[in-house]
């Protein structure tokens, strides 16, 4: 997969450090865990990555669509609006908060724009839609709960 990055540095251990569109530092580890949604391994067009804090980010539109959600982009406010069943989520590029069903909720890291793709923290957003998230043996599983 070809990644075009400006202002990046590749370390001897394969870690790539580069700047996102907001000037923040993004760490891309050569190892990305496998991601399964409801038991099926997911392949993304743009590769997910893990930050140094251990938080995995995934490309938003592709991830939400794999969950069966509807995604809308509002370029004027740099906002992603997502709907699935009775849940709505709004995310703004560069923000560490999400609006989930009209309630403000903190995110562990900001929503990032990298190579013209919006990246979101996988766990907190999955859980907002009622999914259970686990990590074991290099695999992140995102499974529907019984209520979902």
Summarize the structure.
With 148 residues, the chain is mainly beta. It has 2 helices and 16 strands. The strands form 4 sheets. The protein has a 5-stranded antiparallel β-sheet with strand order 8-9-10-11-12, with helices on one face. It has a 4-stranded mixed β-sheet with strand order 5-4-16-15, covered by helices on one side. A 4-stranded antiparallel β-sheet has the order 6-7-14-13.
What is Rg?
15 Å
H and E order:
EEEEEEEHEEEEEEEHEE
Secondary-structure class:
mainly beta
The best one-word shape is: globular
The major β-sheet equals: 5 strands, antiparallel
Spatial strand arrangement across the major sheet = 8-9-10-11-12
- The count of DSSP E runs of length 2 or more, i.e. the number of strands, is 16
Amino-to-carboxy terminus distance: 34 Å
Strand content: over 45%
The percent range for helix content is under 10%
The unreliable regions are 1-6
Q: How many helices in DSSP terms? A: 2
The chain-level mean pLDDT equals 81
